[in-house]
Amino acid sequence: MGTFNKVAELNVQAGKIDALSKLLFNTEKDEAKFIVRWMERNLKVGVGEQTIIAALARAVCITPFNLSYDSPELNQQARASNSSLEEQIAKAEADIKRAISEHPDYDHIMEALKKIGSNTERLKELCYIYPGIPVKPMLAKPTKGVKIILERFKNIEFTCEYKYDGFRGQIHFMRNAHGAEVYVFSRNLEDMTETYPDVVDFIREIVKDNIQSFIMDSEIVPYDRKTVIRWLIIGSNITFSRVNNTTKEESTKE
């Protein structure tokens, strides 16, 4: 896990590749296959995030942390009535899922679970939305037509907006002892701050001095102004493929 933690902390792509290359070079038998699958977030063994959440919930409810294998308290919950135990596990699953959505850092969540055990209600006190840690985005759901939307929101006021064709960017701003810090995360929660220097500068310029922190969901779309491509929060008129091929040097060129 040390290599994976190192890769997660690195912002430079070359450094990530170098660390993973060394890890793969030292693997044996099927290890390389599962390391690659792990990086692709698809182990192909039926283990998804929901499976991990369910396992964590059962672990904290049935097997308390920090107990030896011969402890009389170990698995005592397993002898409780099935209905009460399943209700407790279901509640724990919901609490853990909420924590992962708002604070998707498994290291923090595991440390919190070690402290609180089956009292997963307290997760919201320890693992909550915090600038600097990306929040899982709420994805849109497709519909078959406008009529369905109008029926669903009947007698309810709602707004519509254009769908900009760019990159989803979750922008985090905070002030601390080091000054104003800005981070940009992708929809996959990857740190893309160095890819969008114009966005970082733009945010620093427009934020008022009395604002201490915020998290803003956005679509980052460039527009062509006299052949100069600039990254802005909103815009249009440049195809997605061109956005994808725009380099950091082009985005900052004056």
Structure explained in plain terms:
This protein has 254 residues and is an alpha+beta fold. The chain has two domains: 2-126, DNA ligase i, domain 1 (Orthogonal Bundle); 146-252, DNA ligase/mRNA capping enzyme (D-amino Acid Aminotransferase, Chain A, domain 1, 2-Layer Sandwich). The chain is 43% helix and 14% strand. It contains eleven helices and four strands, in the order H-H-H-H-H-H-H-H-E-E-H-E-E-H-H. The longest helix has 21 residues, at 82-102. Mean pLDDT is 77; it is low at 231-244 and 247-254.
Q: Summed up, what is this model?
A:
This protein is an alpha+beta fold and 254 residues long. Helices cover 43% and strands 14% of the residues. Strands 2-1-3-4 form a four-stranded antiparallel sheet.
Which short descriptors sum up this protein?
single chain; 254 residues; alpha+beta; DNA ligase i, domain 1; D-amino Acid Aminotransferase, Chain A, domain 1; four-stranded antiparallel sheet; 43% helix; 14% strand; globular; disordered C terminus
